[in-house]
From TrEMBL:
Gene3D superfamilies: alpha/beta hydrolase. It comes from the Bacteria. The lineage of its organism: Bacteria, Pseudomonadati, Pseudomonadota, Alphaproteobacteria, Hyphomicrobiales. InterPro entries: AB_hydrolase_fold, KANL3/Tex30_Abhydrolase, NSL3/Tex30. This is KANL3/Tex30 alpha/beta hydrolase-like domain-containing protein. It comes from Pseudaminobacter salicylatoxidans. Residues 1-176 form the KANL3/Tex30 alpha/beta hydrolase-like domain.
Length: 182
């Protein structure tokens, strides 16, 4: 939750008056003490995500989301939270549409009919779902996509483009989208 990428994205969102609350899944927190395990199945993290949402006060419009696995897990609990009036929308940065080099193993079944307003910010050459691949998917009409020029999974493009420019675009786009959706 305090990687360079997360710090940069959170700082940029804060510059757009977006209050960001971060948390770390248990398996990621365990890595701080040297326990390196592969990520668990996303379904096993739903309870942790719901607990984190419940720990946040509701004085402001609440949007949930995350980066990669965090965004995927958020997308799996979003409809329930939206239908209960707990959240206004979902923002995913670098959604893992499929494992790298395994485009046949889609992780999109729940995205076909998701009802919560959703923004996915995705690098055009993300190995978890390129622009070319994702453009052929059937997704809910409630999902908007913001493509980041030549970006990889962390939005980093090849030169002469810059990561800073893509992070600026993603966070400004997300903040503007939340203003409209909330």
């Amino acid at each position: 939750m305090d990687s360079g990428w997360m710090n940069a994205a959170s700082d940029r969102l804060a510059q757009h008056d977006v209050h960001v609350v971060r948390f770390e899944f248990g398996y990621m927190a365990a890595r701080r003490s040297g326990q390196r395990k592969p990520p668990p199945r996303a379904e096993t993290l739903l309870g942790e995500y719901r607990e984190a949402v419940e720990a946040v006060g509701s004085a402001r419009p609440l949007f949930i989301g995350g980066k990669s696995m965090g965004g995927r897990v958020a997308s799996m609990v979003a409809d329930d939270l939206f239908n209960r009036g707990r959240i206004f929308g979902l923002v995913c940065f670098g959604y893992p549409f499929h494992p790298p080099a395994k485009p046949q193993q889609l992780r999109t079944a729940h995205l076909l009919d998701i009802s919560v307003p959703t923004l996915i910010c995705q690098g055009e050459r993300d190995p978890f779902g390129t622009r070319q691949e994702v453009s052929g998917y059937t997704l809910s009409p409630r999902i908007s996509l913001l493509w980041l020029d030549d970006g990889n999974h962390d939005f980093k493009p090849r030169k002469p483009l810059t990561l800073d420019a893509n992070l600026d675009l993603a966070t400004a786009g997300a903040a503007g989208w939340m203003d409209r959706a909330g």
